[in-house]
Specification:
The chain is an alpha/beta fold. It folds into two domains: 184 residues, Glutaconate Coenzyme A-transferase (3-Layer(aba) Sandwich); 240 residues, Acetyl-CoA hydrolase/transferase C-terminal domain (Glutaconate Coenzyme A-transferase), CATH 3.40.1080.20. It contains 16 helices and 25 strands. The strands form seven sheets. It has a seven-stranded parallel sheet, sandwiched between helices. It has a six-stranded mixed sheet with strand order 12-11-15-20-24-25, sandwiched between helices. Strands 8-14-13 form a three-stranded parallel sheet, with no helix packed on it. Helix 15 packs antiparallel against helix 16. The radius of gyration is 23 Å and the shape is globular.
Amino acid sequence: MDWKEEYKKRLLTVEEMAKQIKPGDTIGTAMAVGNCSPDVYHAILDRWEELRNVRFIDAVPIRPCKIHDPEIMANMEGHIEYQSCFFSPLGRKMGQQGVSDFLTVMSSDTGEKYAAVSDVYITQVTPPNEQGFVNLGLTNFYSWQAIKDGKASGKQRLTIGEVNDQMPTIFGNNWLHVTDFDIFVENSNPIPAVGRAEPGEIEKKVGEYVLELINDGDTFQMGIGAIPEAVISGLDGKHDLGVLTEMFPSGLPQLVEKGIVTNERKPFHKGVTVATFCMGDQSMYDFTRENPLCKFYPACYTNNPGFIAQHHNMKSINMGLLIDFSGQIASEGMGERMISGTGGQLDFQIGAYHSPGGKGITLMTSSRTLQDGTLVSSIVPTLPANTPITVPRTFADYVVTEYGIANLRYKTNRERADALINIAHPDLKGELRDAMRKRFYLS
């Protein structure tokens, strides 16, 4: 087979690619940096009047585009619709205005679900190498599995690679052959840089408590946000940490340079940071490019709780919005208001829970201030109605606020409530204790 000829046969312009979309198609797109460019979206959206019942599904969109404009998409109702399985600020307003639907997934099963529903799948890729393989670049996540399983089942009619010569090559199980695709579109476009959150005093205090739970030689996974940034910045003095994660942690280049992260004590992939996607600044992209110390694998592998649990002293570190007295953790929304999605939090919470010496750590600020100045607690007797539960109480473990650490794993409901109130905001402890008495003590 002459792969170069096969590649040329599959090469179309953006406009020619858009003409291949049919009424009724579900179009799955890659996550974050791997998502298709606005050029690809807009070429399809320009056909909206002649299309019906077409839907796009994405996750963590970071390139501003018409597909994320509620007013534009409301006018296309019945023709082209938008769905997401993890809102970012771009997609969040679509959900909050009722213009989009939501696909419930965990990171570990996202590839299987995309394969099951996508008639068309689009992802950015690198140009082919000398052997005829393209690289998924900064986002493997569900793309590799969605393409392989979707093609194998016959559900995926079209697999489209947007070839971007600015996409860095990342090693690992991150390659697909040109013959895995039906269409290629060459379109050089910048890789969006995502800035790091700046922790304030409260976030730094939470980070200080988290550092008490991390020991030399531990393997860790960490989410995104100001508190994880505070944890990263406080890791100086730790040694031989390993990383098995969903997203490369911010500050990874510096952690490796300082010898804080060596990955030498992990049972698998010794010496290598293993993840499934990257979203950061240019220095992070430069560090991961063709770096044998950084490898990507599909999320069905990295986020498999059974695989995670085989790493002793696994520390899963993720953000929460609310927690109730029984230990139910809400991280993706409050009531009907969706903010993000489940992502890999539950995968890693379960994996760390079953890891010998592991800890599933949930970070949150003890309270938040409403627009009218009212101080409300993040620790509540019961969650607001219809709040999605990200981590069920059966896997609640360590919870950290700026006021301390609560270890919930072996506690009853009453004991959990008491432990959580101990790390609540001091001004709100009184009303929380009153609520605890009413709920758990009949007399």
